[in-house]
Design a protein that fits this description.
This protein is α/β, with parallel strands linked by helices and 268 residues long. The protein is built from 8 helices and 13 strands.
Length: 268
């Protein structure tokens, strides 16, 4: 595997480790360490279809990961896409036959996620050590104009995990357990949101009643307003801005749900 493959494999494993407790199938597509497609469904093949649907353009040449064994039906669909690496806990015999038919395709079997409590990075001629970003959120504080529904809670938790693994500034738009739009690595949070909305519209994905996650607080109410106008009805964010009340007030005025977690991610 190349350097880029290894870095993307690490990103894929880190993402999937946050879904360790789910009994559903989760499939994710990683491109340059960012999630470009991810979905949670009852079957592996359905999770793959929904993950790819989120951004089929960016999926080309990506690194794929599943939390379930790859069956023959999923393998046949995946075989239509050029990808470099696929990680899964196991492969059915027929699935292996299908996937191994193409050269230069790397198939990896996952056993466990080998993460220590620390991360290391070389910079400025030295070594930076920091604790691994473990918790997706510390608190669940409902501060909006309405309480979150059960469906919104599931989607907000899903979106918050995805946002944790996107380069900052990061926005994740989720609907029914599917990433429908994302903006990452932008110099402005508003730009990240606009990019996420544009991605959803590019692939005709419906944002009505979607939820939105932000990896850091909203310094103004503009992101909430733009998201609302696009169809978002529930938000999750860390909070902590001196102007938090602007976003909270907007949600109360427009009967929108908002959760504050007290946990910023800010992946760099």
């Amino acid at each position: 595997m190349s350097y880029n493959n290894l870095v993307d494999v690490e990103a894929a494993l880190q993402l999937m480790s946050d879904f360790a407790g789910t009994t559903d199938a989760v499939f994710a597509i990683i491109k340059h360490t960012n999630v470009c497609g991810v979905a949670q469904r009852s079957t592996t093949v359905a999770a793959w279809k929904a993950a790819l649907e989120g951004d089929p353009e960016s999926a080309f040449g990506g690194v794929l990961i599943s939390n379930r064994n790859i069956d023959a039906a999923t393998a046949r669909l995946m075989n239509e896409l050029f990808f470099e690496v696929l990680l899964a806990p196991g492969f059915e015999a027929e699935a292996l036959t299908v996937l191994q038919a193409k050269k230069n395709r790397i198939l990896l079997q996952t056993n466990e996620h080998p993460f220590s409590g620390s991360q290391y990075r070389t910079l400025l001629g030295g070594l930076l050590v920091q604790d691994y970003n473990q918790a997706a959120y510390e608190t669940w504080n409902e501060v909006g104009g309405v309480e979150t529904t059960t469906t919104q809670q599931a989607d907000l938790k899903f979106a918050n995990i995805i946002c944790k693994h996107l380069k900052s500034n990061a926005i994740a738009l989720v609907k029914n357990g599917q990433l429908v739009g994302k903006g990452c690595g932008q110099t402005s949070r508003v730009d990240a949101l606009r990019h996420a909305i544009a991605k959803a519209r590019q692939f005709n994905l419906d944002l009505q009643d979607a939820v939105m996650a932000s990896d850091a607080f909203f310094p103004f109410s503009d992101c909430v307003q733009i998201g609302h106008e696009a169809g978002v009805r529930a938000f999750i964010q860390p909070g902590g801005s001196i102007r938090d009340e602007e976003s909270v007030t907007y949600c109360k005025q427009h009967h929108l749900a908002m959760v504050m977690t007290s946990t910023r991610h800010f992946k760099h």
